[in-house]
Amino acid sequence: MARGNRGWPLKVQEDFLKRMGDLYTNGYSLLEALELMSIHFEAEKKRSLLEAIEELKKGYSVHQVLESLHFNQDILSLLFFSQKHGNLGQAFRSGGALLERKRYYRDKIFSILRYPIMLLFLVIIMLVFVQLVLLPQFHLLFSQMNISLSPIISVFFFLVVQIPILLMWSVLGIFAAYLFYKIYERKLNPSQKVDLLLKIPLVKTFLSLHYSHYFTQQLSSLLLSGLTINEAIAVFEQQRYHSFFHSKAKEYRKFLVEGEKLETLVGREKVFVKGLDVVIVHGQKNGKLGQELEQYSKLLLVKMQEKSEKLLGRVQPVLFLGIGSFVFVLYLCIFIPMFQLLGGL
């Protein structure tokens, strides 16, 4: 299969998926929708879509074709599952909504960090100026006037000298830790990678919500399409876009054949939110497991969005407070020595 040179931007993928979802649910076939979409794209993307149409005619599935265009892995996973439950139009729309959320949070994080980073850059310039220009002048004046440094001024001078060193070592430490993690990560299987991430408190919260939402959303779609639990878990094993669920599905199938219940397996899994096993038991008792998992996946999505908004709302004030405190210390480093010099005249 031909491969695209580079992936489409997130916004372009989002618009493409939303329009494809609308066209498909309004009665267009997949090929007709792609042909219509190709008219509205620039030359390079139009050529990619025309090649995609040819690949579909050869028998490739839509997720394989979009994989060659380097679409987001989460989207490819959604489209893979849509082959099994048959609701391709909804998969396109869900994919568009998913990318819209990703783009929203990416842009929001950028807008939150933009001004603090600019301020931090200016503060670093001020710090360099104080360290290279003002401090030597203060030391020279104090020595010429035979004025000894007070303990407070000595502390501030020490901070001005040590803070850049501390910042440098912090950046190097973070970079080294990241490199170590990436090297160490290669030696781990998918379950071990998840277990490692679950040891980080903040990451654990969002990872649990994300994985639980993904599992309940896809499982509910498969069950509502008429598959049994065993057949649905087999579909999770067949997909290759999410290595954790591929490996876990393989384990689950073995245990299910041996007579264990799905709620027992889910209850043992650390990455899933507490209570998911209870939802499964309740849904099975009512004979509406698919519907209840679908509603629960929507609840998890809302909870994930609320926690994200809450976290982002706290980040900027904390950054401004930290930078403001740093600027305050710099001003003290400048003015306190001046006051002592004036007092020594």
TrEMBL record:
Species name: Sutcliffiella horikoshii
Transmembrane regions: 112-135, 155-181, 318-339
InterPro entries (UniProt xref): GspF/PilC, T2SS_GspF_dom, T2SS_GspF_sf, T4P_ComGB
Family in the record: Belongs to the GSP F family.
Coiled-coil segments on the chain, per record: none
Domain spans labelled Type II secretion system protein GspF: 16-136, 215-337
Keywords: Cell membrane, Membrane, Transmembrane, Transmembrane helix
Record's bilayer topology term: Multi-pass membrane protein
Gene Ontology CC: plasma membrane
Protein's cellular compartments: Cell membrane
Protein's name according to its UniProt entry: Type II secretion system F family protein
Annotated Pfam families: T2SSF (PF00482)
Main localization, broad class: membrane
